[in-house]
Amino acid sequence: MSDNVNNPEHYTYGTIKCIDLIEQVTEGMEGKQAFCIGNALKYIFRHAHKNGSEDIEKAIWYLNEYLGKHND
Q1: CB 28 within 8 A of CB 40
Q2: For the whole model, what pTM was predicted?
Q3: Which of 20, 41, 46, 49 has an alpha carbon 20 to 30 Å from 57's alpha carbon atom?
Q4: For the chain, which residues make up each domain, given as ranges?
């Protein structure tokens, strides 16, 4: 049975947990940079098991935010 709070299935592939990947990739980053890259990775990581192309669009949004391409 899936535990959607402590161990959601859509955040684990084989032995790799999304949070571990994010922690390694964003090591040394701070603030908004780490936040945007972490969220982009999260959406890419789970897209095939949760919201499909919507998650890819969210990842792109966070990557654009990281690059400063939003002029809200």
Answers
A1: no
A2: 0.81
A3: 20
A4: 9-67
